[in-house]
Amino acid sequence: xxxxxxxxxxxxxxxxxxxxxxxxxxxxxxxxxxxxxxxxxxxxxxxxxxxxxxxxxxxxxxxxxxxxxxxxxxxxxxxxxxxxxxxxxxxxxxxxxxxxxxxxxxxxxxxxxxxxxxxxxxxxxxxxxxxxxxxxxxxxxxxxxxxxxxxxxxxxxxxx
Length: 160
Prior knowledge:
160 residues; Collagenase (Catalytic Domain); 4-stranded mixed beta sheet; 6 helices; 4 strands; 17% strand; globular
C-alpha cells in the first residue's frame, strides 16, 4: 500500500499511539472515498494552540486559535476527475491538516467523550474539507456530516 499519511510534530511531543490512530482513521477515509489505490497522501501537523493561531493568521488572516485547519491542494472537481481516470501515478499530497492537540484534549472533556474520538473526528472533518466538502451552508452540512459519521461508525469510534 502507498503511504497515505505523513505526520509532523510542531512544538509538541511525538506520540506513537496517536500516530496509529491517525493512520487507521485516514486509511478508513481513503477506503470510504475510493482513494486507496491512488498515489496520494495527507500531510498532518500536530501542534499547540499558539502555533495553530499563527498558521491561521498567516494563511487565513484570522487571528485566533482553532482546533483544526485544512489546506486542500485540489478542487472537488479535480478529485472527481482523478477518481474517474484512476491513473494518478505521480505521488502527490491531497492537502495538509493541522490539529491543535491541546484543543482536542479540551474539547474531548467539553463534549464528554474520549480523546481518541475527538482526534478521530478532527481527522475525518479535516479530510472531508480536503475532499472539497464544507459545512457553512446547511445544504453542504447535510452532505458532509453523514460522510464523517459513517467513517467513525465503520471504525466503531462512537460518541461516548
